[in-house]
Amino acid sequence: MKISTLLRKMRKSKLFMIGFFMLFAITVSCFTSRWWVQWDSQVSDLMSRLGAPDWFANGLSGHPFGADPLGRDILSRLFEGGWVSLKITFLVTLSSMILGSVVGLIAGYYGGWVDMVLMRLCDILSSIPQLMLAICVVAILGTNMFNLIFTMSVTGWVSTARLVRAAVFGCKNKEFVSASKVMGASGFRILWKEIFPNTITPLMISASGHFGGTILLETSLSYLGMGVPVPVPSWGNMISDGRSYITSAPWVVIVPGIALMMTVLAFNFIGDGVRDILDPKNIN
Amino acid sequence: MGGPVCENSLICRLEKVMKKYIFKRLLASIVVLIGVSIIAFVLVRLGGGDPARMMAGDTATEAEVEEMRIRMGLDKSWPEQYVTYIKGVLKGDLGYSWNYSMEVTTLLATRLPQTLILSLFGFCWACLFSVIFGMVAGIKQGTIVDFGAMMFAVIGQSMSTVWLGFLLILVFGVKLGWLPIQGMGSLKHIIMPGLCVGFGYAASQTRLMRSSIVDVMREDYVTAARARGISKGVTYMKYAFRNALLPIVTSIGVQFGTLFAGAVVVENIFNWPGMGALLTQSIGARDYQLVQSILLISSVTLVCSNFLADLLYTVVDPRISFR
Amino acid sequence: MKEELIRIENLWVEYHSGGAVAKALNGINLTINKGEALGLVGESGAGKTTTALSIMQLLPREVGRITQGDIFYHGESMLKKKDKEMNTIRGNKISMVFANPLTSLNPVFTVGHQIAMGLRKHQKLSKKEAAQEAAKLLETVGIAKYRLDDYPHQFSGGMRQRVGIAAALACSPEVLIADEPTTALDVTIQAQILELMKKLQHEYDTSLIMITHNLGIIAELCEKVAIMYGGEIVEYGSVQEVFENPLHWYTYGLLHAIPQLEGERKPLESIPGLVANAQTLPEGCKFHPRCAHCTEKCKTTIPTMIRISDNHYVACCGAEV
To answer: How far apart (Å, rounded) are the C-alpha atoms in residues A46 and A277?
Structure first.
């Protein structure tokens, strides 16, 4: 598909556009927050511990969404945490896609026992629930940002690998691949130049569906104490922090939860939109 | 032709399918489970930390630690340890939990059923709810019911389990005081964790069921059934329904796996004494054999649920036969 | 005069989807008498299937709408009937064979069940009785009865269409609507199916509405023929009269687009242009953009149906004297 057709289809897809603009707004406000929020998200002020939200009554100099158990401003943490969560999500999705497509390409292209071994590996990995596997890996590696991203990536590439492999199988016996072989292209060149472009569509569909799940997984891991280590905020650990204060200070939990939901919503919209746009079944 | 009368009866079809299929499937499952056991075995040992020292206590002398190591069987090489473990597993002995000072088999015998009950409860309500809700929404396209279903689907898929759990606790446990917020015992105890565990699944399946029924209603065979004088209601409920169910059934195995894993978090939120809560506690304590066994048991559950789902699929869709 | 079964009066049907309106039927009149076989001919999109679905009252809901006119069955308006009453007519008095046997049988129910469906509903047979009856029907259409419990995917296309015919004939309907029953089949199978339909039509003394774009089938099976174009009937009459002496240029074109096996070889005459698009129908005669004999009058006035003889009617400006 040409870029211009793709753009036109994207513009026409309502779901995609809604999702895209939501995500754009969220990303931009999270990224720029460091210049306009009034409070340092990691500095606690015990005077305003669990302070109730004042809903912008004092503008940005108050605590519009209240303060958390350590008296840190929730608004500042929300945006900074959002940036952290988004960063993690993008990096994890990117690396799982790379891992998944490398495995899928190799398995699909070389076939035979290579394929057998890799696919059995996929079977094995996918028969351990991702969350459980992730818990074990993080617990073993220790909690830090890099380990978290690494863990979520190595446990999340299997479905992508399968999709890519299927796409490779679909095109590796086509004439253009044979033609390339006849002309003496190397295996790597064929993979990269002829076959890989044909896996981009399933890859994009897979990637766009991956974001939402990743950011939700981060929340679950955070709750189990295996997410982003304190004091760096992430939406996951902000929600988890509020567990004990759910009765007295529900905003501590509710605010980041809504932000998270909006973001996942945006990701899901984008995912659906991309599927609509790229799925060959939807020609119109 | 072998008894034309029973050719397509459920039992016969299942029998035929099973014989050929089970063997192949069993073989593949064994490979998978061996793989899982190796991964689990290596994984827990990669983490560093010395379980023998942890067990012996801070004040233990070097000799005591060494003695403990021998008692725990950690002085042997990895392959030896693995073989010992697998031999035990085959005999139904999943090893010994140092942290809990009891047989893993005994420990899991009380914990696994709790996790299964919770996941099955979540799974069942989610299935029932989503199939009915999605069906009604699809049939009544463009109405308020349809809109409601779409909203539920979109929002439900975007909610974090943790957050949903907290909200449930806040609303039903604290503000309304209807339901206990943790532990287990009565039927009331399972409602909130069960809701929480099945929510995402219910949302995604509602959507799937809706689009599936919408597609099926456009099919010729639905018009054909109507052309034979079958009323709208019967056509949808009986004829379109079964076809619409197919995509749901296809993904049921995988979905149950996801749901089962989600139970880990939910158990921790609601203090549900299942396997998930056990896992998070024992992984920190480097309780090797317990962690290994939990991972192994989880994948056995997954493998079984996938197998059952495939069987179910052959029952619902006569076109599918296993090769 | 034979007894009149179905009369379509000035029927207009529109399809609405996504803001676009397609005028599928633009005022058609048609009568089907008892025991008679009528052929409905036209290119894809001429409104043949829409006519059939209108009679069955099974136009896709929300999308297809009858805007004007009525359909009478035994003199009673079908449009005024409730869905419940229609359910006692569909499959019982009027039944239908669908175009594509691969999609018109439900893949997850046995063929026996699908044949028995109508029987159980209309004749209130028990499960067992209905199964026996279905077995007989299967044999009538030439399929061994032990295959009753097989699923559609275990049959070939031709066999499935036989099943479709068996299901349609289950309750000995007065009218059988066959919507291109052979287009999806191999030529050799087509002949078998047609032979079967011909035989059964006489056996059951059923009126037949044969929808097709194959003129050979019409010549084979039908007594009367209606040629449709752009949602209108352009020519109507006995098969012999219309085929031997076509008066509408469209009919003429259709007849000359068939390769002849005998006689001197001549190049085929195709009808130029594209089939009329129901969303952008032209003014005047719907066929005029493709007609070689188009006049100024054709572009502006809609020709009315004129009577040539008792069994020949045509709607063409050129035929008006």
So the answer is: 51
For residue A250, whether the previous peptide bond is cis, meaning omega lies within 30 degrees of 0, is no
Best of B162, B293, B302 to disrupt the A interface by mutation (most A CBs within 10 Å)? B162
**pLDDT at residue A1, rounded to an integer:** 61
Can you read off the two tokens belonging to residue B179? 């339901």
Residue A61's Cβ-count burial label (10 Å; 0-12, 13-18, 19+) is exposed
Q: How far apart are CA C128 and CA C21, in angstroms?
A: 48
Residue A218 structure tokens: 């981060």
Q: How far apart are CA B294 and CA B99, in angstroms?
A: 14
Note whether C171 and C123 are within 8 A (CB): yes
Report the distance separating Cα C142 and Cα C156, nearest Å: 13
**What CATH number did the domain enclosing B117 receive?**
1.10.3720.10
The answer to whether the Cβ–Cβ distance between C105 and B221 falls below 8 Å is yes
Mean pLDDT across C272-293: 80
Residue A171 vs residues A1, A178, A197, A198: alpha-carbon distances, Å:
16, 10, 10, 7
Terminal Cα-to-Cα distance of chain B (whole angstroms): 19
Give the domain range for residue B263: 113-280
CB under 8 Å to C52, separation ≥6 — which residues? Answer: C40, C96, C177, C179, C209, C211
Range B161-168 average pLDDT: 90
Kindly state the average pLDDT of the residues B103-126.
Answer: 89
Selected residue of B166, B170, B251, B305 to mutate for chain A interface (largest A Cβ count, 10 A) = B166
Cβ–Cβ below 8 Å for A128 and B167 = no
Place of tokens 């809700």: B133
B30 touches chain A (CB under 8 A): no
* Cα–Cα distance list, A95 to A115, A152, B144 (Å): 21, 9, 42
Q: Does ipTM surpass 0.90 in this model? A: no
Q: What percent of chain C has pLDDT over 70?
A: 99
Instruction: Please choose, from the candidates B186, B190, B247, B183, the residue with its C-alpha nearest in 3D space to the C-alpha of residue B215.
Output: B247
CATH of region C4-93+174-189+207-275, choose from 3.40.50.280, 3.30.460.10, 3.40.50.300, 3.40.50.2000: 3.40.50.300
* CA–CA gap between residue A34 and residue A56 (Å, rounded): 18
Alpha carbon C78 to its chain centroid, in Å, reads: 18
Domain count across chain B? 1
* DSSP codes of every residue in C9-34: EEEEEEEEETTEEEEEEEEEEEEEET
Q: In this structure, is residue B2 part of a structural domain?
A: no
Beta bridge partners of residue C256, listed in sequence order? none
